[in-house]
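Response regulator transcription factor, pasting as requested.
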Amino acid sequence: MIRVLVAEDQSAVRAGLVLILRSAPDVEVVGEAADGEQAVALARALRPDLVLMDVQMPRLDGVSATRQVVAEGLADVLVLTTFDLDEYVFGALRAGAAGFLLKNTEAKDLVDAVRTVARGEGVVAPAVTRRLIAEFAARSARRTTADPAVLDTLTRREREVLSCLGEGLSNADIAVRLDMAEATVKTHVSRLLGKLGLRSRVQAAVLAQEWGI
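Structure tokens follow.
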């Protein structure tokens, strides 16, 4: 079972999300939070596999809550946002979110996204993937402190996997592209994230775009 904590301040929206998730046989909603502080507290207490996090919440916003949850290694975070709130999206990705979905995402796609993140992959709303990565990379390039020399620590295969992440490919797609087992792809992703000091594959995708890999 995939254990999910739902953090959303609007009770009606939260109830709808919970209803959708509970309709999936492999998903268990273990808690509900109405604000960011509660989300962090419940993540510490319940240790869910994933937190479905709204960005605009009282007491502590979703980006700050995401940063705390990820920094403490409590759970993966899948952020819910609207298309016109790019600053929140950028902040969530910098905070280490595994990805984000638009609030008008269809029920099936929401459940699929939860499963994808639970498998250790990232999710970015398809409608805005390319624009998001390109714009975030452009912003980061103006103030990044990352040293491209760190790429020298990566093996040839790890660089190839990083390049694929920059294209937004899933583990399954990368496995086909590079002719390797999906489990091997996961190992390479994990290792390159560690070497680059990154928290999520989405951050790796942004870095790949920024460095033109």
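Note for the archive: The mean pLDDT is 83.
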